[in-house]
Amino acid sequence: MDAYLRQGDRSVLVTDWLSPEEWTAVGLSLKVALVAMAASLIPGIAIAYALERSRFWGRQVLDVLVHLPLVLPPVVVGYTLLLGFGRRGPIGSFLAEHFGIVLSFRWTGAALACAIMGFPLLVRAIRLSLETVDRKLEDAAGTLGAHPVWVFLFVTLPLILPGIIAGMVLSFAKAMGEFGATITFVSNIPGETQTIPSAIYTFTQVPGGEGGALRLTLVSVVISIAALWASEWMARRVRRKVIA
Amino acid sequence: MDGAARQAKGYRLMILDVDLHHRQGSFTLEARFQSDGRLTALFGPSGSGKTTLVNIIGGLVRPDAGRISVKERILIDTAQNIFVPRHRRRIGYVFQEARLFPHLNVRQNLLFGRFFTPRRERVSSFDAIVEMLGIAHLLNRWPTTLSGGERQRVAIGRALLTDPQLLLMDEPLASLDEDRKTEIYPYIERLRDEAGVPMVLVSHSVAEVARLATSVVVLNDGRVTASGPASEILRHTRFFQHMGPAEAGALIETRVLRHDDAYGLTVLQAAAGALTVSRVDLPLGAPVRVRLRARDIMLSLAPPDGMSALNVLPGTITAIEPVDASSMDVTLDCGGDGIVASVTRKSVERLGLKVGLPVHAIIKSVAFDREALGSPRMGNM
What we know:
The complex is a heterodimer of chains A (about 240) and B (about 375). Chain A has helices spanning about 1-5, 20-55, 60-70, 75-85, 90-100, 105-130, 135-145, 150-175, 180-185, 195-205, 210-240.
């Protein structure tokens, strides 16, 4: 999509309204946020389940680690990522050497930073809904012959779906707005790592950039409202089945 | 298996064999019993450990020590370190609250367990069970739109469709009002008599146990105080002291002899004679199980005369047991049926009652327990 947008073909999408650079930032933001959300979903569910349901050594430590991005300054998270995942960082050099994966100053790195910043929100939302699941239903599923894995997939998971949706929206919204961690870890490269917030920041730094900043602000507001509305709609559909 | 061969030799398959020791906080469960009944009632006051016991049988609670086997398959044996997890026990469990899955409709709920049942062990027919439980018209409904009685029937169907070796029912009717209960009883009776799945029913209602059970295990404060065939256990008042001595009584199997429409009465034929009760809507010859509560039976040395009671059965005293300081249980043999009368110690002495003495049991017709006037075999109706 963004390749198409980058060509600046404005015949279909209405839009002299946004410059090609602005479209690129919007497309990139969406891509980064969606990838961040999708990538953190399964680890988010797994960690929420582990924290809520099991007692294991190091549970407290994991709990604190997951919540750290919520309380740390985003710049600190970004810098830590740079230290760890940068070309010369221990994880970054390992990934580059063995898998050819480079995260720093790439849009994938932006997605990683966004995923980590949104992770505590995702985990918290899922944990909250796990708390409300009636364990007796899971017991009943067990007596009906379902192995614990199937109990989770067929009973627990559908019952926490509203919480998962809420968590995904929070994670997406957080990713759309992430600035500090992203700019520290992957900088502000137009077309590669310049998301909406970085683009707005850039606009405010140059004379005559107010127009662009304002337009991207509006786009940002529209996307956020749309995400919120979509999640409400999905949650209502799910809830109608579960409670109605 | 060599079960068939064993049975040919007159061996009776033991359905449930329990020997357990389990502590939960300050409560200790010490249960040891066997049952070969089609429907075994676990009976006792709340807090006596009934639910803990079925939870252990169902695999929801792991006992501290002991063993359980169902149809001679060992499910738990702490000495041998055997613990079959709940999903491999093949024991159906109907809970007090139906516990239907709210995100699945009735059909999906019913088929949930069947999905996990090995294909070659799926013998019950979906249509037959749905029809037997009268839930065919509910298949596309959501659990939240069902009434309490409907939910329990779906829960029973869901458990049955897994083709369980044993069906546990933990007070499945406790949350229902009287009308709903009477709606479900016939289905449980049909299950007991037609489905061939042995059941364990947790109950604290004597009337319910009297109507449904073939075997009874009495639990008190975590201990088994009595176990055996329902007719044996139910007639002894001392097992039921916690309910007030009012509830115990003998179970008698009778048949409808004739209806006396002019007076709105029905005459039932028991082993020792005829019993007249208020009109029961059953065809002639239909079997009826009645309960004669011990406190409703008076004893007389001579055949009574000039009394309003219509029912008098002659019998012979077979046992006299003290219940507490003032009352005693007198057991009579009335033509093969055991009947228990609760009388005062003073009367026993005054009348000179002793084992072997012929007496007459006077039963007021109003003393018949309406709820126990159910038919034990719906299939024959």
